[in-house]
Structure formats: structure tokens, C-alpha cells
Amino acid sequence: MNVGIIAHNSKKTLIEDFCIAYKGILARHDIYATGTTGRRIEEVTNLRVHKFHPGSIGGDKQFTEMIERNAMDMVILFYNPNMIDPGDPDVVTIVMACDRNSIPVATNIATAEMLVLGLGRGDLDWRLSMKSSDIL
């Protein structure tokens, strides 16, 4: 499964801690992230992360394009709703792209934990049939 991870600057430490906690599950999947988030995840977990550009220089657009191609199976997007930085990735655009493509998306730690535990159990395997039907 392709797991997309993106975090605003104020949530970088939270995403690092999340990835450390769920490293065992994440290690069995392909992880995609914007540049800075991906680098930080790699540094703390030693997981291999496919990195886009940093969000502020187009990485969020690359991330969203992968969602629009239905190539992402799950997205974890941590942001601070009280502190939106214009340089941070556009939350609404990413969430709407996920909704259009029936891609599960978590925007907080509680939902992210439920999704990643489901990923570990195989609860998201239905995404594989959606991708194969796109090929036809």
C-alpha cells in the first residue's frame, strides 16, 4: 500500500513520534511524504521514504497529483487548525482530492492511529481492488 504522510511545521515532532510508534506497520508499506517531513521521518525511523519537494516549493502539489491519480491508498495529514501558515500545504485541497478518490485520510492523531492499525490488520486491502479496476 502507498501511504502518504504530510505535516505542517508545527506538527513535525508529532508525525515523527507517530512514525516511531508505528514503524513496524509502516515498514511493510511504501511511504510518500513532502521533502522535509520525509527527511525527518527517515532520520528518526530509518524507514525508506519516497520524498517529494518540500511543501512550500511544490511538494504539496506533487503529493496531491499522486492522490488525483488514485495512486495513494491512505493519507495522514497533521496540521494545526489554529495556526495556518501560507507556506504550508493546502489542507482543503488534499482532503477534497482524497474524498474524490475514496482514499482514507486522517487529519488528527486519533484517526491516524485507527487508520494505521487498520492498515496493519489488512482492513484497507479493498484499495487494491479499486486500483486494479482503474487499470481496466
Structure notes:
By secondary structure, the protein is of the alpha/beta class. The protein has a single domain (2-122), classed as Rossmann fold, CATH 3.40.50. It has helices at 12-21, 23-26, 35-45, 59-68, 91-100, 109-121, 126-135, and strands at 2-7, 30-33, 49-51, 74-78, 105-106. The longest helix has 13 residues, at 109-121. The radius of gyration is 14 Å and the shape is globular.
Tell me the fraction of residues in β-strands, as a range. Answer: 5-15%
How far is the first residue's CA from the last residue's CA?
A: 19 Å
CATH level-four homologous superfamily name = Methylglyoxal synthase-like domain
The unreliable regions are: none
CATH first level: Alpha Beta
CATH architecture: 3-Layer(aba) Sandwich
The Rg value, from CA coordinates, equals 14 Å
Main traits of this protein?
5-stranded parallel sheet; alpha/beta; globular; Rossmann fold; 7 helices; 5 strands; 136 residues; 50% helix
Quick rundown:
By secondary structure, the protein is α/β, with parallel strands linked by helices. It has a single domain, classed as Methylglyoxal synthase-like domain (Rossmann fold, 3-Layer(aba) Sandwich), CATH 3.40.50.
How would the blueprint of this fold be written?
Elements: E1 2-7, H1 12-21, H2 23-26, E2 30-33, H3 35-45, E3 49-51, H4 59-68, E4 74-78, H5 91-100, E5 105-106, H6 109-121, H7 126-135
